[in-house]
Amino acid sequence: MTWQSLTDWWWPYLFILLAGWLPTDMWRFIGVFIGGRVREDSQALVAVRAVATALVAGVIAQLILYPSGVLADSPVILRVGAAAAGFLAYVTLGRRVIISVIVGEIVLLAGLQLTS
């Protein structure tokens, strides 16, 4: 399956939303159910948190540096700016992943509209 196999205009944006939010929150929910008795600063949870963060960072870096589909047509400065705006929203708006992903998408969509 490729970006080109799905012709709906909204599909890449839904994918970005799901790839940015779902992987991190899924592990948080699993952690609540399984890790109720595990100390928060235990080595096991530190390792899980590091792996989860590295996976999300890898996906984001791939989307910024080696995009495909509509993202490949956008300037790299726009992709970096959208990621920076999402990070800034994360830090300033209560550290909520879903809000930061939505802010990043809004910046990306606005930039795509201005550059086309």
Automatic annotation (TrEMBL):
Pfam families: AzlD (PF05437). This is Branched-chain amino acid transport. Keywords: Membrane, Transmembrane, Transmembrane helix. It comes from the Bacteria. The chain crosses the membrane at residues 12-34, 46-65, 71-90, 97-115.
